[in-house]
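Task card 7
Instruction: Convert sequence to structure tokens.
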Amino acid sequence: MKKLIAILSLIACILCFPACKDSGESLSVYAPDGAPALALSSAMEGVEGFAYNVVGADVITAKVSGTNPIADVAIIPINTASLLLGNGETYQMLGVVTHGNFYFLSKNSGEITRQNASELIGKTVGVVQLANVPGLTLKVALGDLNLAYNELKNGSEKASDKVNLLAIKLTEIGVADCDYYLAPSPVADAKSVALNLNFNGSLDRLYSDLGFPQAVLVAKKSVILSDFDKVKELVNSIKSCKTYLKIENKDAICMAILSNLESGLTPSFTTKNLTQLAIDRANIELVLAKNCKQEVNDFIEKIRGVNPNAACTINDEFFYLGEF
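Output:
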């Protein structure tokens, strides 16, 4: 009888295995290339038990979508997190990882700040990702400063009494007819050198002295429960990434990202452009969810004020408020 029970138990385990995660197997981590991947570099080097995947920004959404999403852990844009995961049913937010890595470039000297942003009136700003978090954040910042903006579409005319916003691609920096360009580091760093453009301030400082929550770290609720120690180690590694990036050999950092890069993708960071200044401009710092819940909720409501379809109000259950 005992033998029969053992056999039946073994069969039951085999049948349920695909639906269960063995705490001993690797957990999948996905992050888009650029600053989020840089934030994972210390973990890639020192934290085992995870399968790291650096993918294109255009496919990261698919990794946390569907009834059985592939990513156990992911770094994704905050508005995407609110739209897909904000109900807190499958994933929880562990913290904010990046706080704004978009910068103004132009032929002009001087910095665009909250105090002198009115200088943008009548000018055209070419914005990479105008419809996403960077563009939404710029619109919020302009609104907070009582500066009207005019989105240029289908050949519409510039307004002399508003800030004119034009959606551009990375390849159009320095090419599109704009007075300023808003682009992410490290692309902004490379374009600055190649096209002799000046840095004229940052989007995060235009929004607030504290920056804005740009990308967040999320994990499946089931994984937090079943593999808490693993998740804790990953979180603590990302928390220490700022120090790691200052002292670690740049070749090692780039190799860590490159070895986990999706096939066919060209890495944003290379040994040529990974300077300390570029690292600082990535604005990486993990702030735990328990310490930034209100900030995140406030930001979501602000970008919803610009475009109600760009984000969703977040359920309290989405925030993981435990200790690490």
